[in-house]
C-alpha cells in the first residue's frame, strides 16, 4: 500500500521553497541570522499575535503536548487527507516540529502544520490543515508563520513543501516560491516502482 503522505492526489508537481532563504550561489546566505534575545526572527513576521488569537478563542501550541491524535485525524478526514494509524502518526509527530491551534472551548485542534527534517539545514512541511468550519479566518497562515519562524530560529534555512495547484497562492505570500532557479521537485513513489517491475 502506498504511503499516505506520498499519494499523488494530495501533492502537486509544483515544488515550493522559501525564496528568502534559498540562495544556492552564496553559501553564506543559506543560514538565516540568529534570533535576537527577544525571540523575534529576522524576516519572519507574525500577522496575528498569540494574544489576538487567544481573544478570538484559539490557543497557540508549539509542541505535541496535549494534542489529541484522534481529533487531528478527524480534521485530516474532513479536509480530504487520509487518516493515519494513531500510533504511527504519534511517532511521526515525535520527530516533527509542530505548530497548531486549539479551540479554547474544547482543546481540540482546529489548525495544524508540521515539518520534518534534520533540525539543522533542511525541513519539509507536511500536513497543513484547517478545520473546514474555521477556514477563511487566517488560521492556516497563523500556524505556517509560527512553524517557519521556529525553523528559522533554529537556523534551518532550506524549507520546502509540496502543494496542490489550488493552494499554491496560499503559500506565496508566506515567502514560498515555485521552482526557484529552475529546481524541480521529485518524489519516489513505491507504487510506481512496483508498477515498473510488473511492466518489465
Description:
The protein is an alpha+beta fold and 200 residues long. Helix content is 28%, strand content 20%. It has six helices and seven strands. The protein has a seven-stranded mixed sheet, sandwiched between helices. α4 links the parallel β5 and β6. The longest helix is centred in the last third of the chain and has 15 residues, at 139-153. The radius of gyration is 17 Å and the shape is globular. Residues 1-15 and 18-38 have low confidence and may be disordered.
How many helices? The count is: 6
State the order of secondary-structure elements, H for helix, E for strand: EHEHHEEEHEHEH
Specify the helix fraction band.
Answer: 25-40%
What would you call the shape?
Answer: globular
Strand % is: 15-25%
The parts where pLDDT drops under 50 for at least 5 residues are 1-15, 18-38
CA distance, first residue to last residue: 20 Å
Amino acid at each position: 500500500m502506498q504511503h499516505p503522505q506520498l499519494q499523488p492526489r494530495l501533492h502537486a508537481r509544483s515544488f515550493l521553497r522559501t525564496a528568502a532563504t534559498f540562495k544556492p550561489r552564496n553559501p553564506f546566505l543559506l543560514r538565516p541570522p540568529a534570533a535576537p534575545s527577544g525571540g523575534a526572527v529576522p524576516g519572519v513576521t507574525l500577522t496575528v499575535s498569540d494574544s489576538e488569537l487567544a481573544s478570538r478563542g484559539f490557543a497557540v501550541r508549539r509542541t505535541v503536548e496535549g494534542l489529541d491524535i484522534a481529533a487531528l485525524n478527524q480534521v485530516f478526514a474532513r479536509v480530504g487527507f487520509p487518516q493515519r494509524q494513531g500510533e504511527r502518526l504519534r511517532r511521526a509527530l515525535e520527530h516533527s516540529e509542530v505548530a497548531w491551534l486549539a479551540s479554547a472551548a474544547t482543546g481540540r485542534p482546529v489548525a495544524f502544520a508540521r515539518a520534518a527534517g534534520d533540525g539543522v539545514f533542511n525541513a519539509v512541511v507536511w500536513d497543513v490543515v484547517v478545520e473546514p468550519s474555521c477556514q477563511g479566518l487566517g488560521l492556516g497562515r497563523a500556524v505556517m508563520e509560527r512553524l517557519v519562524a521556529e525553523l528559522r530560529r533554529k537556523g534551518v534555512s532550506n524549507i520546502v513543501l509540496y502543494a496542490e495547484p489550488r493552494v499554491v497562492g496560499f503559500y506565496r505570500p508566506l515567502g514560498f516560491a515555485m521552482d526557484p532557479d529552475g529546481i524541480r521537485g521529485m518524489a519516489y513513489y513505491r507504487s510506481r516502482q512496483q508498477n515498473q517491475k510488473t511492466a518489465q
